[in-house]
Amino acid sequence: MREYLYGVSPAYMLSVFGEGFTPDDVISVLDDIKELGFDEFQCELVSDTKLPLWEEGGAVRVAAAAKEKGLKISQMVAHFMLEYFKDEAALFSDSGIDEIKRLLAVMDLMDYRGQLTLPMGAYKELSALDDAGKARALARLGEKVGLIARLAEEQGSYIALEVQPGALICGGAEILAFARSIGENVMYNYDTGHAWASGDKTVADFPGLFGRRLTGTHLCDNDGITNLSLAPDKGTIDWDKLVCNLVKSGYSGGLDLEIFTTAEKVKDEYAAVFAKLKARVESSR
């Protein structure tokens, strides 16, 4: 019987420290994450201005602290890449590539070779694109993502797409086709909140759709309209169906919660949702 690893996304650190959190902030909450019973956590760079903190000792300290506490790093999230996919000027430039190379070097310092999560946010000119313009933008997106995928592969890792509402690609079928068009090592990070708020009501069926390409999770909820990261059962996603499909699909990655809350409530809220998630998983076996 498969034993899942349970973890927290960077939303845990963001809830406690805000967007400016540092490697030492990450280290400071690892004891809490361990005491709550989690097995893993995700690293994230919200801004590439924080790269020096990771390059100049932070990465090594985080990796050492994780090892000492028996916690696994499940993802490195390149959140700053939202800036480099957000509009035509950014997309059609080489901006973000040097930063990705530096981040992959940070992952080397951590001796981490795994999932580099690549977020894509709303594309500013999307509503103004005609068919030819969208095709041109998608072709360029494929080139840029393909380059990043090759860089990650050279480092020993792989990329996983995390698609937010309003991005150039939208919906499970379109994201999967895009990933397939680039290569075998382009995966999908299952952010249930982003997918639900994008309007794809088949979100609970994504595990079967993506199969082996579904390699990581950001498990959260919302009302299907506003792109929030609420605790499961605080929105309108069918969690019994989603978890059942995830378990029965053969998914073997981590089950990582993505809940934005307050610093005062973070431990209690994550603990409560963790218990419910584990119960759902057990009842779905």
What would the principal axes of the Cα set say about the shape? globular
Mean of residue pLDDT values: 97
N- and C-termini, Cα separation: 8 Å
DSSP E strands, number = 8
Q: What is the CATH-assigned architecture?
A: Alpha-Beta Barrel
**Radius of gyration from the alpha-carbon trace, in angstroms:** 18 Å
- How many domains? The number is 1
- The percent range for helix content is 40-55%
Structural category is alpha/beta
Largest sheet: 8 strands, parallel
Please mark out the parts with pLDDT under 50 across 5 or more consecutive residues, or reply none.
none
Q: What are the salient characteristics of this protein?
A:
285 residues, alpha/beta, TIM Barrel, 8-stranded parallel beta sheet, 11 helices, 14% strand, globular
Describe this structure in words.
By secondary structure, the chain is of the alpha/beta class. The chain has a single domain, classed as TIM Barrel (Alpha-Beta Barrel), CATH 3.20.20. It is 46% helix and 14% strand. It contains eleven helices and eight strands. The protein has helices at 11-17, 23-35, 51-69, 88-91, 97-109, 131-155, 172-182, 192-197, 206-210, 239-248, 266-284, and strands spanning 6-8, 40-44, 72-77, 115-120, 158-163, 186-191, 214-218, 255-257. Strands 7-6-5-4-3-2-1-8 form an eight-stranded parallel sheet. Helix 6 links the parallel strand 4 (115-120) and strand 5. The longest helix has 25 residues, at 131-155. It starts with 5 loop residues before the first strand and ends with a helix.
